[in-house]
């Protein structure tokens, strides 16, 4: 199922570009304006619902923090559970964690060790708002697999095409971005 050009425009027009945030040279893609626009939010969620309703998914795993918003909404639409993948130190129970490199230094994300254990070999869709270098999503997909589930696909509202993130992530899972930014 492909986006119509009207739907694509509605989504693209609802995303706000903030230059030099959080630092010089970065164009930050602000999706709070998409969330606040009922038509754009509706078109976005309906598209993901139509794409994934036949996948027989068991869980959506969302990446801290904007992946929680889209991921939890989609999990409800599909009638399945939601699992948060969080920045280090936020989850209260026993976790497994994965380090990944940022432009400067390292970061670490975690998931509860038993997050997917209610369903053996659970089929999981990973979700975030945007893929840039793909480091975060790669670490998240690894965590899902280490937790005993299977990451079938990773999906994003926005894929930044000028970085190799999507290409790198495709080595470990399928990748789907609603809109591509060149
Ligand atoms: P990466 O690991 O490089 O793919 O970075 C992805 C994470 O950083 C996602 O959770 C995004 O929300 C955030 N991010 C990276 N670059 C941008 C950007 N230009 N605009 C908005 N969010 C970004």
Walk me through the structure:
The chain is of the alpha/beta class. It has a domain at 55-181: Rossmann fold. The protein has helices at 5-14, 32-35, 38-52, 66-78, 135-146, 165-169, and strands spanning 16-19, 27-30, 59-63, 81-87, 95-101, 106-112, 123-131, 150-160, 174-181. Strand 8 (150-160), helix 6 (165-169) and strand 9 form a beta-alpha-beta unit. The chain is globular. The two termini are 22 Å apart. The mean pLDDT is 97. The site of adenosine monophosphate (AMP) has 17 residues, from strand 2, strand 7 and helix 5.
Short description:
The chain contains six helices and nine strands; from the N terminus they run αββααβαββββαβαβ. The protein has helices at 5-14, 32-35, 38-52, 66-78, 135-146, 165-169; strands spanning 16-19, 27-30, 59-63, 81-87, 95-101, 106-112, 123-131, 150-160, 174-181. The longest helix is centred in the first third of the chain and has 15 residues, at 38-52.
């Amino acid at each position: 199922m492909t986006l119509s050009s009207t739907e694509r425009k509605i989504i693209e027009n609802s995303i706000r570009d903030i230059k030099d945030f959080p630092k010089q040279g970065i164009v930050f893609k602000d999706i709070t304006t998409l969330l606040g626009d009922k038509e754009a939010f509706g078109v976005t969620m309906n598209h993901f619902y139509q794409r994934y309703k036949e996948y027989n998914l068991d869980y959506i795993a969302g990446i801290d923090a904007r992946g929680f918003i889209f991921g939890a909404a989609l999990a409800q639409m599909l009638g399945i559970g939601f699992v948060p993948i969080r920045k280090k130190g936020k989850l209260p129970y026993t976790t497994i964690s994965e380090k990944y490199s940022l432009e400067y230094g390292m970061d670490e994300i975690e998931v509860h060790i038993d997050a997917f254990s209610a369903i053996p070999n659970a089929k999981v869709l990973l979700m975030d708002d945007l893929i840039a270098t793909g480091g975060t999503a790669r670490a998240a997909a690894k965590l899902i697999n280490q937790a005993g589930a299977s990451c079938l696909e990773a999906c994003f509202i926005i894929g930044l095409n000028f970085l190799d993130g999507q290409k790198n992530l495709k080595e470990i899972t399928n990748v789907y971005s609603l809109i591509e930014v060149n």
